[in-house]
Amino acid sequence: MRFTALTSGAVALALTASAAFAQDRAGWPDSFTVGTASQGGTYFAYGSGWANLVADELGISGGGEVTGGPMQNMALVHTGDAAFGMTTMGPAAESIQGTNPIAPGLQMTNACAMFPMYQTPFSVTTLSSSGIASIKDIPDGARIGFGPAGSTSDTYFPRMMETLGVNFERRNGGWTDLGGQLQDGLLDVIAFAAGVPVPAVSQLEVQTKVNIIEFTEEEQGKILETFPVSSFSIESSTYTTLENDARSVSMWNFAIANCDLPDDFVYAVVDVVMSDNDRMVSIHRAARSTLPEHWNKNEVMKWHPGAAKWFNENGASIAGEMVHGG
């Protein structure tokens, strides 16, 4: 009898806990998607990885979705067509101002900051056989692949090249496709803006000899003066091709969430991603920068209240006016 009574009590306690847990998830979506970018780029590998991690940990169906990159992700998350996405600070600022080319005039203020990801370095890759070993070596009319239309790379790298006096033919496409075109001689240069190591570059290194071109100090200085970027150094250990660190510039990336998602849902997602950096790094090495202390790299977007709550509980000091609805 005593065993039965204890068992009944345990069952009742379990049922009570289950009911409370279910109640805590009221309003949560049954599934979610994360807007990433094209296959072969860092966004797709990183975004699909954290989407799968969150889906496994929270027991919700979710995954990464191929998109055109940051500009499109801002639009998808703003409208709610994607729960989550990934963007860089430049495209985020343009989208909030209403200058996103996908929907000119629409201020995409319903996409909220969720967590810092990593810095996106801007780098140039060519085949060693091309003889191009510096920006100045790029010939007039060179065919340059700038990534998917509307991506961070496509938005900023052509302007950077023009600032540096490069004349080129502009080509767009997914990173894997552009890597194949470079190898086949259909492109002269690929201008990457992606977290390193870029999967497409790593694959090229396996198949052929490449040059990963750094900016000179003068070139870097011109870009820093003109664009919303920071100085960056690509570590030599990133690629087998590099013998020394490569001078570059970078732009911060943030994960974004539709601002209307339940606070406790977004809080739970942020907790999964930010609480175990080792697992994130196992998804992609760029996640070494996916750390709570980088919360202050966002000076553009309002924070989702659920995300702001997590970061403020973990050492941040996000001001109320920087929180959506605050």
UniProtKB/TrEMBL annotation:
Family annotation (InterPro entries): TRAP_TAXI
Q: Does the keyword Signal apply?
A: yes
Does this UniProt record's set of keywords contain Signal?
yes
- What SUPFAM superfamilies does the database record attribute to this sequence? Periplasmic binding protein-like II
Q: Which UniProt keywords apply?
A: Signal
Endpoints of the signal sequence = 1-22
List, alphabetically, the Pfam families matched.
NMT1_3
Show the NCBIfam families listed in the entry: TRAP_TAXI (TIGR02122)
> Which PANTHER family does the entry link to?
SLL1037 PROTEIN (PTHR42941)
- Protein's name according to its UniProt entry: TAXI family TRAP transporter solute-binding subunit
